[in-house]
Design goal:
With 153 residues, the protein is α/β, with parallel strands linked by helices. It has six helices and four strands, in the order αβαβαβαβαα.
Length: 153
C-alpha cells in the first residue's frame, strides 16, 4: 500500500478510503471472505494513525480481516500506534515486519524490545541482506545441472 497504484493521489497510503478499497479488491482477487493478516506497508505521514487504525478496526469487526500489523515502522511509530489504539478503543497492531539480517541489525536496539513489550510478533524480511549473504551467484551453474542433481543440492 505504500507505493502509488496509479495516477490518482487517493491510490496510495494508509487512508480509510484506500484501505477499504484495497481490502475489497484483495478479497475479490483472492476469492475469499477474509484476510488472516493485513499489514500496512509503511507509515503514511499524510494520514493520522487514528484514521488508519479505525479503518483496520472496522475491517476486523466486520470479519474481513483477522489481525493487523505494520511493516518497517520505526519503534516510535509503533509505540504511538499502540497508545492510540488503547486510548481510542481500537484494534492494535499484532505484528511488525522489519528488515533484519546479520548486516542489518538496527532493530535490536528499539524495534524488537518495543514489539516484545506489546506482545507483537515479528516477521522479518531480507534475512540474506538482499543477496549479500548468499555468496557469488551460481544461478547459471544451477540451471546447467540436471534436475535430479538440483534437487539434491
Amino acid at each position: 500500500m505504500h507505493l502509488p497504484m496509479g495516477d490518482d493521489p487517493n491510490q496510495r497510503g494508509n487512508s480509510r478510503r484506500w484501505i477499504m478499497t484495497e481490502v475489497e479488491n484483495s478479497l475479490r482477487r483472492l476469492q475469499t471472505d477474509h484476510i488472516d493478516l493485513y499489514q500496512i506497508h509503511r507509515p503514511d505521514p499524510d494520514t493520522d494513525i487514528e484514521e488508519t487504525l479505525s479503518a483496520l478496526s472496522d475491517l476486523i469487526h466486520s470479519g474481513k480481516v483477522r489481525a493487523i500489523g505494520s511493516s518497517t515502522m520505526p519503534a516510535s511509530d509503533i509505540v504511538e500506534a499502540q497508545w492510540v489504539a488503547e486510548r481510542r478503543g481500537l484494534e492494535r497492531f499484532r505484528t511488525e515486519q522489519p528488515t533484519y539480517s546479520i548486516l542489518s541489525r538496527g532493530i535490536e536496539a528499539e524495534v524488537l524490545p518495543v514489539a516484545q513489550r506489546y506482545g507483537m510478533g515479528t516477521l522479518v524480511w531480507s534475512p540474506l541482506a538482499k543477496g549479500m549473504l548468499t555468496g557469488p551467484s551460481s544461478a547459471g551453474a544451477l540451471r546447467r545441472r540436471p534436475v535430479s542433481e538440483r534437487a539434491a543440492a
